[in-house]
Amino acid sequence: MSLHDTMAAKAFAAGKTSDEFSTAAQRHANASWAFALFTGATWYFADWVWALIPAALTGLSVLKSVSSTTIASKLGQVEGKNLMSTPEAEDVESIIQAYGQEMEKLSLSDKDIPYDLGLLPFPKSKIKAALLRGIEAVDDPNMIEQLKGGYVSLSDWQDTSLPREDQLAMMSTELIAIKADLEKF
Hints:
Elements: H1 3-13, H2 18-45, H3 48-79, H4 89-107, E1 115-116, H5 124-137, H6 141-153, E2 157-158, H7 164-182
Parallel strand pairs: 1-2
């Protein structure tokens, strides 16, 4: 697991949200501009040697901004906020059916979890959004439980190019977020 994945998992466990990290990223970006201006002024009025100090602070602020943005993105994925587009009502059923068919194929195979993320018929975020819309729209308690089970099973789909321990760590982190989502229903 990369450093940012580890930091995102710890932040999620501590109850931090992607919005908090996005705000921090913007704050660090603003500080970077201020330090850059101060670096220029120091270089102009003093000497380039003295300008190295605010230049180092500029670099540090840029690094913090990029890091905060990366963690916000990873938390957004876990929170399901990276939905580029929410599926239309007519697409919800086809997305859920395609996901169900893929789950059925895997249940008949010998493959162990985690399953390869690349085998999903749609991006994970789109399937999450479709399942949540399906849960909201359906009145049948049995169907709601099946949709919730499918939603929980989404944590079983991970990037299999990562080391197994990283995949399992991401599964557990994602499962916590998924269970929190389902508490609303």
